[in-house]
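forwarding from the other thread:

> can someone predict this with zinc ion?

sure thing
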Amino acid sequence: MLAGMTREPEQQTGGGEPDGYQRLWTPHRMAYIQGEGKPTGPGAGDGCPFCAIPGQGDEEGLVVARGELVYAVLNLYPYNSGHLLTVPYRHVADYTDLTVPETAELAEFTRRAMRAIRAAAAPQGFNIGLNQGAVAGAGIAAHLHQHVVPRWGGDANFMPVVGRTKVLPQLLADSRAAIAAAWPA
Ligand SMILES: [Zn+2]
């Protein structure tokens, strides 16, 4: 198990069945919107964090693995521990903008991310997806990034995770090291 993987007791916040969609995609969007890494414009030179991360060290940038055309990085504002993003190095916004080789490596990195997270943290399931456009929930819509979110039973309430922002940096460093060590060659 990853350090910091212990979860809060399941909390009931309302009646009915949980709607995983809103809970899943809202928190990191809000964190990015309010965060310091918000780009000033849509271009690659407008402070895009996904263009800057590959130039940082693995620990500093929370990079888990580097490929030829794409890389994997921990989400700075995770919904769950081990929440990864697979990202093309190239500053493109839309899935249809990817070349065939980029598409293939993005898919392969998603598979490797699942294997690594399974080895490191034994999740019971995953949410994997692309938010295309700000209207669809993309916090940084100008640079495509695919979410790989491990899921465990009882993790539906994100507030305890988001609320622990002061201890998250250490947890992220531990998570990065564990998943990077488990990354398939
Ligand atoms: Zn970019």
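Residues 44, 48, 50-51, 91, 143 surround zinc ion (CB under 6 Å). thats all i got for now
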